[in-house]
TrEMBL record:
<dbReference type="InterPro" id="IPR006311">
    <property type="entry name" value="TAT_signal"/>
</dbReference>
<dbReference type="Pfam" id="PF14720">
    <property type="entry name" value="NiFe_hyd_SSU_C"/>
</dbReference>
<keyword id="KW-0411">Iron-sulfur</keyword>
<feature type="domain" description="Cytochrome-c3 hydrogenase C-terminal">
    <location>
        <begin position="250"/>
        <end position="332"/>
    </location>
</feature>
<keyword id="KW-0004">4Fe-4S</keyword>
<keyword id="KW-0812">Transmembrane</keyword>
<keyword id="KW-0479">Metal-binding</keyword>
<dbReference type="InterPro" id="IPR037024">
    <property type="entry name" value="NiFe_Hase_small_N_sf"/>
</dbReference>
<feature type="transmembrane region" description="Helical">
    <location>
        <begin position="351"/>
        <end position="373"/>
    </location>
</feature>
<keyword id="KW-0408">Iron</keyword>
<keyword id="KW-1133">Transmembrane helix</keyword>
<keyword id="KW-0003">3Fe-4S</keyword>
<keyword id="KW-0472">Membrane</keyword>
<dbReference type="Pfam" id="PF01058">
    <property type="entry name" value="Oxidored_q6"/>
</dbReference>
<dbReference type="InterPro" id="IPR037148">
    <property type="entry name" value="NiFe-Hase_small_C_sf"/>
</dbReference>
<protein>
    <recommendedName>
        <fullName>hydrogenase (acceptor)</fullName>
        <ecNumber>1.12.99.6</ecNumber>
    </recommendedName>
</protein>
<comment type="similarity">
    <text>Belongs to the [NiFe]/[NiFeSe] hydrogenase small subunit family.</text>
</comment>
Length: 378
């Protein structure tokens, strides 16, 4: 049996097993789609798009559709640690809720401090109940960094005053799989920027388990929902890169799929945001774009219903899905190559060769390491 046939069979068996479990939502996904005016055709188009996003062959779209319908069989516990809630907001506050948000709504969300109605002791009980009732079976999503200095006292949550550090360790112990949603929970994010007084760290730094890191500030809702769908469908982690990010989402450089790339190669650059080159859509490298150093699918998947993404809108990528981006990618409106090449790219006329050289230096370590990165699975 070839790899795809074996994977399809694995998905089939997983979904058959999930179908035997009782639904945890009162309304089926079909009813919810009807209520929100989505047609079956739109749902099948969504399934095909998620299949392509996950880099799976088109026949898998029937499994994706089934996985979405059965998403309420997989309990999800979502913790908020040191963060701004932007990752949840990016998923749930769309002007026009799309199928991604509807399917997230269909997942069996057992605990989510922003979305649940419960508060205080009742919220605390909900969490304790979810962790014991679904021990070994729930998917844990964590949003926000973990403050670790002084035993984690810089973040306490809930009426029992548990630290974020205690909570994440406790919740991770019984989780079937763990997803760090956003750069803060993946790598520490802005909380971990120098001098990092709270000792903020990514989740993988404080627990002894594989964590899927969905870098991004915030990560796209497609990468969140795609990861959830992959887990519902196969009951395991996807292939991960050297920073434990799913390869299907973070396998390509922003720079390599950017619509301004032709201008980069031709040495045509925006010199300042108000110039004619900016109006003509030239490359943003010289005004700070970090696309050459950043791995994410923003140019291909875009945001807001596939309408646009930061570079198309006119500002360079700031490298938000990379570890330590807050420190390593700053200044966000100056080229990184300037630092790497000790001022060699100061002349606009030398950018072609020099900037490409800078990009190679900057990405070399990652690219080489990616070649040797194993497909990690729990
Ligand atoms: S440097 Fe930025 S704007 Fe220029 S081609 Fe690369 S990603 Fe696009
Ligand atoms: S374009 Fe760059 S900064 Fe913007 S969301 Fe994508 S990875 Fe983050």
């Amino acid at each position: 049996m070839d790899t795809h046939a074996a994977l399809f069979e694995q998905g089939r068996q997983r979904l058959d097993a999930l179908r035997q479990l009782p639904p945890r939502q009162q309304a089926s996904l079909k009813d919810k789609m009807l209520e929100h005016g989505f047609t079956r055709r739109e749902f099948m188009q969504w399934s095909a798009a998620v299949t392509a996003l996950l880099a799976l062959p088109l026949p898998f779209s029937s499994l994706v559709a089934e996985a979405a319908e059965l998403a309420d069989r997989v309990p999800l516990v979502w913790l908020h640690l040191a963060e701004c809630t932007g990752c949840s907001e990016s998923l749930t506050r769309a002007d026009t809720p799309d199928l991604d948000t509807l399917i997230f709504d269909h997942i069996s969300l057992e605990y989510h401090e922003t979305l649940m109605a419960a508060a205080g002791w009742q919220a605390e009980e909900n969490l304790e109940h979810a962790l014991s009732e679904y021990h070994g079976n729930y998917l844990l999503a964590v949003e926000g960094a973990v403050p670790t200095a002084n035993n984690g006292v810089f973040l306490t949550v809930g009426c029992k005053g548990k630290t974020g550090l205690e909570l994440v360790k406790e919740a991770a112990a019984g989780a079937a799989a763990i997803i760090a949603v956003g750069t803060c929970s993946s790598f520490g994010g802005v909380q971990a920027a120098a001098p990092n007084p709270t000792g903020a760290k990514g989740v993988h730094d404080v627990i002894d388990r594989t964590v899927i890191n969905l870098g991004g500030c915030p990560p796209s809702e497609k990468n969140i929902v795609g990861t959830l769908m992959y887990y519902v469908m196969f009951g395991r982690l996807p292939a991960l890169d050297m920073f434990n990010r799913p390869k299907w989402a973070y396998g390509a450089r922003v720079h390599d799929n950017c619509e301004r790339r032709g201008h980069f190669d031709a040495g045509e650059f925006v010199e300042e945001f108000s110039d004619h080159n900016a109006k003509d859509g030239y490359c943003l490298y010289k005004v700070g774009c970090k696309g050459p150093y950043t791995y994410n699918n923003c140019p291909t998947e875009r945001f807001n219903g596939h309408v646009s993404w930061p570079v198309l809108a006119g500002h360079g990528c700031i490298g938000c899905s990379e570890p330590n981006f807050w420190d390593d990618m700053a200044d966000f409106e100056k080229p990184l190559g300037r630092q790497l090449l000790h001022g060699l790219d100061a002349s606009a006329d030398t950018v072609g060769a020099v900037i490409i050289g800078a990009a190679v230096i900057g990405i070399g370590a990652h690219a080489v390491a990616s070649l040797f990165a194993n497909s990690k699975e729990d």
